[in-house]
């Protein structure tokens, strides 16, 4: 019931008594023209036509709205139907032109995400480039707008959010008295502990790691923290903003000497939004997101990390040429990207291999296994190696996607799943031409995505407006408003019957997941001890096990560090289940014919049955020559049920993550027991990390989520 109310509250056009609101102002023509600077002339012409059609439609809607408002202005009792129409007009007038397209650049530190963004936006050193002691420390969003200046907004953790992290950091640093000297030394050298110490020293100064939670609450941070928790930076030139922004998003590892006031508040930064003015390289409506590969120790930042991944309609998995051939980090990022296709709005995944200009010629020639043609230069070797990488990784990526996604997924039809780029060569062009660096190819991909989305949006917008205008345009006065009543009882019965049938179909769709779910549960029960042992790898024997496990338990099974691989025990335990259900789950939410397990086609069939019924009622009610009523009501059915489809897709994430969430909830008492010290003496000296009680039921956790 709560979810039903939630959906109703999100309807596209609620009746509002505030009828006389002024519609938002139109964008000036000069501003609109600036939006097309990133496009070639042919694409500019298409976009201008879309923009012109949308603008004319908005103008007609606005004029109609004003006329209708004037016609009812002095009337004290406005019928609900007229209120509905007025609010629908206003909602359409103020509907955004285009929801942003989020393109997530997802990769480990040093993979080349910032360098790639710099090349795409044509600003060589705009974002800091990772080095041995430097890395981008938070999520950074880069977009363009019609502003005159370069602008950055730095969002900080709220006071309550920082208190939560501070409590966890001080708890993590608290050593148990039972540790002997050797264990205590190992504790202090652990990466999780080192990072906690570094954060506290950065914000509060040397010695902060020795203070308890209450003492640090009373301590004054070294840097100035604005009460608004937002820092806004502006500049006339890109280089000027880059210099101002640099200390906030550039992290100098373990070096506190001479830190600026800006760097000192780094632990509080949640994310950064950068807006470029009238970019000729990145069109307005596209947001490039630099996403760190491991998440964050802070709960809110880690939650935002996942939500950012999920709202991306495109994910580029960034891996440099030396790390693309494998390794746990690369596989973890790839799996997370594929999961985004299952639980989020992602429709496209591609592998972007960076730093492809790197090649040791003599070593490559010695190990070369392809082609008989002699290699004459470094450039020829780079181009040949890049083509080989494309063919190999394209095949591997497509095979992995096929195992996880439905066979008719759009991403499997993509001609380019792998790009080989070089940001350095884009600027220098010592070996490769600009086209061969494939930076222009990525820009072309971005433009195509935006153009396609704009076309779909305008088509839907004009169609929706047309049905509404057909009805409102016929209202000459209040007396002529239609007052016929539909056969409500018969229509209600019809809708209720169709809803019952739809509910049965939904059950049938999800019934397909029962068998793979049971198989996955059996696999998970048989392998969870081995999985947990793999998650809690101890690189120095048993050293580090105790403190790593404590960090994991502090966050209910999750530990995300900027330097180490992400640990998520809940997700790892349920991975054997996801391995079984992923193809079926993807099939439930795919588009296609209303057969098999696909859910959305059945919603579409439900919509068509209502529209046909409405046409039948219209004919019986004498609407043969009054087609505006029929067109309006049929279009409203599309609008309402279009909202239902969006609602289903939003809920998809909750459904998909319900297994992990349920497991985490069931294991919370175990995490708390261990974290409060009751499990320390029992487990800190042993290699077996499986502190999960034998009575815990994985299948029960799954059953509750059904």
From TrEMBL:
Gene: NUGGC
Function: Nuclear GTPase found in germinal center B-cells, where it may inhibit function of the activation-induced cytidine deaminase AICDA. Reduces somatic hypermutation in B-cells which may enhance genome stability.
Compartment(s): Nucleus speckle
GO CC annotation terms, alphabetical: nuclear speck
Domain (Dynamin N-terminal) ranges: 103-323
Alphabetically ordered keywords of this record: Coiled coil, GTP-binding, Hydrolase, Nucleotide-binding, Nucleus
A GO MF label: GTPase activity
Residue numbers spanned by region Disordered: 1-35
Biased composition, class Basic and acidic residues, residue ranges: 14-23
Predominant location: nucleus
The protein, known as: Nuclear GTPase SLIP-GC
Lineage, highest ranks first: Eukaryota, Metazoa, Chordata, Craniata, Vertebrata
């Amino acid at each position: 019931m709560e979810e039903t109310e939630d959906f109703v509250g999100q309807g596209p056009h609620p009746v509002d008594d505030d009828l006389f609101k002024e519609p938002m102002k139109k964008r000036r023509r000069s501003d609109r023209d600036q939006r097309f600077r990133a496009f070639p002339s042919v694409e500019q012409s298409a976009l201008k036509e879309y923009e012109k059609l949308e603008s004319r439609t908005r103008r007609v809607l606005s004029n109609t709205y004003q006329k209708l408002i004037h016609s009812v202005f002095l009337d004290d009792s406005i019928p609900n139907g007229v209120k509905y129409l007025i609010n629908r007009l206003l909602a359409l007038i103020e509907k955004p032109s285009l929801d942003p397209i989020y393109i997530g650049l997802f990769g480990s530190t040093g993979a080349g995400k910032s360098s790639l963004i710099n090349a795409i936006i044509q600003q060589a050193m705009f974002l800091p480039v990772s080095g041995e002691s430097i890395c981008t420390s938070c999520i950074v969003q880069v977009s363009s707008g019609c502003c005159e200046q370069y602008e950055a907004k730095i969002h900080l953790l709220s006071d309550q959010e920082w208190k939560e992290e501070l409590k966890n950091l001080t708890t993590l640093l608290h050593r148990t008295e039972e540790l002997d000297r050797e264990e205590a030394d190992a504790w202090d050298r652990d990466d999780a502990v080192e990072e906690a110490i570094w954060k506290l020293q950065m914000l509060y100064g040397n010695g902060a790691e020795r203070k308890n939670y209450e003492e640090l609450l009373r301590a004054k941070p070294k840097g100035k923290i604005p009460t608004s928790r937002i820092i806004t930076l502006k500049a006339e030139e890109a280089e000027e903003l880059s210099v101002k922004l640099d200390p906030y998003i550039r992290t100098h590892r373990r070096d506190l000497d001479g830190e600026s006031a800006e760097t000192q508040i780094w632990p509080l930064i949640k994310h950064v939004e950068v807006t470029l003015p009238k970019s000729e390289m990145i069109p307005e409506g596209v947001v490039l997101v630099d996403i760190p590969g491991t998440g964050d120790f802070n709960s809110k930042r880690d939650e935002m990390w996942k939500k950012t991944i999920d709202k991306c309609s495109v994910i580029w998995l960034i891996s440099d040429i030396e790390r693309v051939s494998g390794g746990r980090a690369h596989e973890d990022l790839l799996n997370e990207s594929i999961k985004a296709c299952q639980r989020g709005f992602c429709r496209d995944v591609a592998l972007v291999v960076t730093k492809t200009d790197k090649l040791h010629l003599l070593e490559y020639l010695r190990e070369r296994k392809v082609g008989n043609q002699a290699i004459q230069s470094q450039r020829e070797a780079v181009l040949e190696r890049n083509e080989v990488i494309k063919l190999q990784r394209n095949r591997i990526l497509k095979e992995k996607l096929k195992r996880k996604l439905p066979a008719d997924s759009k991403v499997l039809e993509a001609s380019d799943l792998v790009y080989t780029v070089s940001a350095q060569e884009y600027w220098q062009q010592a070996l490769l031409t600009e086209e061969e660096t494939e930076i222009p190819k990525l820009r072309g991909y971005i433009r195509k995505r935006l153009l396609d989305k704009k076309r779909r949006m305008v088509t839907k917008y004009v169609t929706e407006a047309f049905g509404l205008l057909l009805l409102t345009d016929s209202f000459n006065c209040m007396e002529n408003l239609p007052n016929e009543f539909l056969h409500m009882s018969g229509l209600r019965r019809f809708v209720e019957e169709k809803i019952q049938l739809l509910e049965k179909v939904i059950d049938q769709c999800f019934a397909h997941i029962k068998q793979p779910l049971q198989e996955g549960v059996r696999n998970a029960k048989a392998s969870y001890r081995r999985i947990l042992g793999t998650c809690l790898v101890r690189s120095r024997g048993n050293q580090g096990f105790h403190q790593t496990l404590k960090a994991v338990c502090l966050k209910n099974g999750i530990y995300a560090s900027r330097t180490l691989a992400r640990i998520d025990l809940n997700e790892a335990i349920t991975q054997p289940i996801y391995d079984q259900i992923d193809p079926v789950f993807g099939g439930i939410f795919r588009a296609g014919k209303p057969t098999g397990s696909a859910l959305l086609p059945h919603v579409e069939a439900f919509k068509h049955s209502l529209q046909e019924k409405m046409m039948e009622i219209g004919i019986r009610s004498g609407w043969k020559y009054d087609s505006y009523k029929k067109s309006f009501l049929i279009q409203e059915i599309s609008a309402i049920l279009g909202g239902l489809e969006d609602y289903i897709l939003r809920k998809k994430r909750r459904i998909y993550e319900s297994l992990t969430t349920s497991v985490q909830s069931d294991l919370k008492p175990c995490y708390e027991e261990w974290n409060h010290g009751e499990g320390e003496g029992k487990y800190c000296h042993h290699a077996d990390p499986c502190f999960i009680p034998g009575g815990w039921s994985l299948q029960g956790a799954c059953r509750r989520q059904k």
